[in-house]
Amino acid sequence: MNYQPPLIPKYYQIYEDLLAMIRQGEFGEGDRFPSDTELVKSFNVSRGTIREAVKLLIQQGFLVREQGKGTFITYQKITQDSYKLIGFTEVMSQHGIKASAKIIEKKIIDPAPNIKQVMQLTDDEKVVRIIRLRYGDKEPLIIERSFFRYKLFRPIYDMDLEKNSIFELLYRHTTTRLGYAMQRIEAMAAGQSEHKLLNVDLGTPLLLMKRFIQAKDGTYFQYSEDVYRSDRITFTTRTLPYEDQHDSHGLPLDLMKNE
Amino acid sequence: MNYQPPLIPKYYQIYEDLLAMIRQGEFGEGDRFPSDTELVKSFNVSRGTIREAVKLLIQQGFLVREQGKGTFITYQKITQDSYKLIGFTEVMSQHGIKASAKIIEKKIIDPAPNIKQVMQLTDDEKVVRIIRLRYGDKEPLIIERSFFRYKLFRPIYDMDLEKNSIFELLYRHTTTRLGYAMQRIEAMAAGQSEHKLLNVDLGTPLLLMKRFIQAKDGTYFQYSEDVYRSDRITFTTRTLPYEDQHDSHGLPLDLMKNE
DNA sequence: ATTGTTTGGTTGTCTATACAAGTTGATAGA
DNA sequence: TCTATCAACTTGTATAGACAACCAAACAAT
After folding, report:
1. Cβ neighbours of B36 (radius 10 Å)
2. Edge-to-edge, what's the strand order for the sheet holding B253-255?
3. What is the rounded distance in angstroms from the CA atom of residue B125 to the CA atom of residue B149?
4. CATH architecture of the domain formed by B88-228
5. Residue closest to B150 by CA, chosen among B113, B108, B122, B114
């Protein structure tokens, strides 16, 4: 009848419990997952709470529900996490590779006009430009050229960005709360700087990701252009069940105007 | 106390109603959206149902909830759909461009070993290979090389694939229900065939998307390799609010082994 | 043997209620 | 004036109960 939410919600704890079970391989691929009623009994909560927890697992592709039949574990465990935002370090360590990073540049500058435009900055606002090279096992894999609003970045400006995740630091030391991120992926040919930094031939096709990150209030907080060695790193995405989406291509496209 | 679900659930109807309102611009960007209680009154349903409807709008990026404050319309309407799976034709027409397609090849073949492997086919199973060139305003933009299991594709084999969406046809004429899709994006250099078909110079960097599409039972239904003119087409994705995800990179990565 | 029918289990939808947690603005007190 | 508290709102979480839609397997009737 009444309840007492300690710090984190029940449905989230249950979600974590169930996730741990799945990860530990307590169920085989395609196996039946406990029904709502069973889970209600074993966790001693209401059905709504259970469904909330299970919904998370479904959204993340671990489970599938089929009306009248039951809930089932999905196949292909390998890519099961790929929908999620994972940090570079984590990805690398999953492959048994030591990730590292080197700051090539960290400067407060007046933004170039194109940067000013995409970040919707006022005329006098300054930005921090950070160029960082990320390695996997000492081999350079990614060049990150990021632009942050100095106003929001100041509190962590002097911290060690080589060892820490910038977002982690921001989250802990500022009140900035991040909102949406938008990425655009293009292909490009290696130029002089990519040739030197990534150690690839001139003209090698590379992946270029342009990222826009907004704060919760809708202002742009970061813009970055990251260049990936495409022979070593690719992007993968998983898409949820089609259902309504039966037309379609897997990924959202964006068309360039050519003039 | 009791209810009668006619054909489609209430929450879905409400979702459609609200979506229509938003689309018609009844609310400005950043405006406050009606609160749960207000919606409960105007639609005369319970709060749970309202929240279900609103959740859909949130998942699709139209709204944001903030505890204690309210629900708000999101900014930048332009990209608000970009999270979604949109068909090529639709994207093009949004830009006022006439999309068309030409079948270059349609054949039943014995799959090459690598195809057999990625699609997890049995030894004697045949596949349909379709090579299709997609145009925007008569300019070639994409080469699609798709492989379908012949077994599942047969019912629509003789239909007009130039005018229709393959998935649309499948959905209507077969019992095949699609499950998950997985994409991998790489960069590549234009070779002879891309040079000819896409009308770009040899060595031009292009985007290569490898797509795996599963049926609901987990079997692989389609594998395709699509080549995009990267000067005209890019991929974009939007990511939901960060929250738990404060480490991180925008997009899931995948690492290649280099041996 | 084949065809209906029933039964029990499953997910899907909906209602009604309750309280927690966070925000905002008004009000009372220093 | 400034500050603290309070009240009224918001969304977030949780419970309990009900019935619909669907599925599979057991059962009955033909």
Report:
1. 15
2. B99-109, B127-136, B139-149, B220-228, B205-215, B178-189, A233-239, B253-255
3. 8
4. 3-Layer(aba) Sandwich (3.40)
5. B108
The token duo for A4 is 């007492």
Chain A interface mutation, best of B59, B156, B222, B234, highest count of A Cβ atoms under 10 Å:
B234
| Cα end-to-end distance, chain A, whole Å | 65
pTM above 0.80, yes or no: no
Task: Indicate the DSSP class of residue A13.
Answer: H
ipTM exceeds 0.95: no
CA of B155 to C1' of D18 (A): 43
Spatial CB neighbours of B60, under 8 Å, sequence gap ≥ 6: B80, B81, B83, B84
Which residue matches tokens 């795996």?
Answer: B212
Residues lining strand D, beta carbon within 7 angstroms: A 1, 3, 5, 9-12, 45-49, 52, 66-69; B 2, 4-5, 33, 35-38, 47-48, 51, 65-71
Secondary structure class of B253 (helix, strand, coil) = strand
Instruction: For residue B80, count CB atoms less than 10 angstroms from its CB and return exposed for 0-12, middle for 13-18, buried for 19 or more.
Output: middle
**For domain B10-79, which CATH number applies: 3.30.360.10, 3.30.930.10, 3.90.1150.10, 1.10.10.10?**
1.10.10.10
Give strand letter and number of the nucleotide nearest A40 (CA to C1'): D15
Distance CA A9, CA B244 (A): 14
Span A94-126, pLDDT tens digits: 566 666 778 899 999 998 888 888 887 877 888
Over residues A163-206, the pLDDT tens digits come to 666 766 666 666 555 566 677 788 899 999 999 999 999 999 99
Among A214-223, A232-241, B101-110, B240-249, name the one with the lowest average pLDDT: B240-249
